[in-house]
Amino acid sequence: MDLSLPDEARRAAEVIRRADIVIGIPSYNNARTIGHVVRAANAGLAKYFPQLTAVVINSDGGSTDSTREAVLSACVEDSRLMLLSTPLVAAHRLSFPYHGVPGKGSAFRMVFQMAKQLDAKVCAVVDSDLRSITPEWIDLLIRPVLFAGFDFVAPYYQRHKYDGTITNSIVYPLTRMLYGVSVRQPIGGEFGVSARLIRRYLARQDWETDVARFGIDIWMTTVAIAEEFRVCQSFLGAKLHDAKDPGSDLSAMLEQVVGSVFTLMQEYAPVWQRRTGSTPAELFGFRFDVGLDPIQVNVDRMVQAFRRGCEDLGEIWETTLGKRTFMAVRRLGNSLGESRESFHLDDELWAEVILDFACAYRKHPLARGMILRSLTPLYLARVASFVRDTENLVADEVEEKIEQLCLTFQNLKPSLAARWNGEPVQGGGRRPQRERAAANEMDQTNVEV
Q: DSSP assignment of 380-400, as one string?
């Protein structure tokens, strides 16, 4: 028996003994939405897997509202589901507080420990603030593992063009470039995982790092792809949840997610350096268009944050960024005094910023926290630029813009590999006109000094 499980969870595992399927729902003060998520999970299990035993586990981070009570009281009448087969036994509903570092990753760890203890064939995890989850999501996250031999099922859903900006601007293009597999939502929040992959996750020793917090999703995705587990995606439709303005305070999430990506880059450097190009992971489910909730974006606040960054973080950026990249960023900051309408952080400059930060993160281990925190104003500048570029574009056109960003990252991979290995960069894919502009500015600066 796994002694790291909370006593209450361990006793429950002893009573239940085994289950074919485990559904995990991490939570913290989600009483308003978690009841719907639990009912959808129960309905999906009853409708699509009636002959399998299942457990729905809420792994709670110490909620002070009625989250756990909402989990235990949530139910759905089978008669309303029009079931073709009567479930073998109703799914157990459990709710436990997890132990360890506060965060989503620690919540997942307890769910995985329970899945292993119950000898589950598959485990799916879903967010507790979902409003668009349906019973079909459970089928789409579980069936590829149970019946098609996949180890990891990532979500593929439609989101508002300003929802998931960390994914769209950093994590998706960077992960795709590094590991050669296109998983559109690598930090989506909903996943299906095989028993084999669960054992691998639990055997790792990084559960006390940012993996225990916001880093968990990209950690799960990267380990699966880099270690060549079978990876696929399932189309889930719309993701409607408690979305935030991308200009609001996302610094902790940005720091933990990007820090996890950069840390994994070091571990898996031999893997990503030998992979070229990218191929899409297989996609299951029926794709369809859906309506999405609007997201209000405060561009001025993001631009002001970048302006403050230019004033306060110049020394850090100069150390972190390559010379020409730093000069281009400085020139962008200077342009704010001329006309905000002309403010534009293009794809190539943005990709170079991220790759420079990745190399600096590796080179200066004692300054990693400061390096990551200094990225926030640059990230907000990129999002502000993206919002302005896409405000009149429809979903397909926005997706094409993101595809172009991914290709830009991919073109710069040889430059990244050279810098990573301490080799001279041959061209690096930089735009000649920007090189000339940056060089001219450096020359002028030297003359002025």
A: HHHHHHHHHHHTT--HHHHHH
- For the chain, domains (ranges, CATH) are 7-284 (3.90.550.10), 299-444 (no CATH)
Q: Which tens digits make up the pLDDT trace of 36-61? A: 999 999 999 999 999 999 999 999 99
The pLDDT value recorded for residue 436 is 41
Q: Give me the phi and psi of 24, to 5 degrees please.
A: -110, 135
Give the separation between CA 58 and CA 302, rounded to whole angstroms: 36
Cβ burial, residue 1 (10 Å; 0-12/13-18/19+): exposed
Residue 353: exposure state from Cβ atoms within 10 A (0-12, 13-18, ≥19): buried
Local structure of 71: helix, strand or coil: helix
Q: Are 414 and 429 in contact (CB under 8 A)?
A: yes
CA–CA gap between residue 395 and residue 410 (Å, rounded): 23
Q: Closest Cα partner for 301 from 182, 411, 387?
A: 387
Please tell me whether the overall predicted TM-score, pTM, comes out greater than 0.85 for this model.
Answer: yes
β-pair partners for 34: none
Nearest to 284 by CA among 399, 170, 132, 149: 149
Pairing mode, strands 282-284 and 191-194: unpaired
For residues 277 and 410, the answer to whether their CB atoms sit within 8 Å is yes
Average pLDDT over residues 298-312: 93
pLDDT on residue 288:
75
- Of 52, 128, 118, give the one whose Cα is nearest residue 90: 52
Query: Which phi and psi (to 5°) does residue 103 adopt?
Result: 155, 165
* pLDDT: which is higher, 281 or 7: 281
CB 342 within 8 A of CB 335: yes
Angstrom CA distances, 436 to 328, 347, 400, 418, 431, stand at 11, 18, 29, 22, 9
Instruction: Read off the pLDDT of each residue in 322-336 and give the average, rounded to a whole number.
Output: 93
What is the rounded CA–CA span in Å between residue 43 and residue 38? 9
Residue 88 near residue 48, CB atoms below 8 Å: no
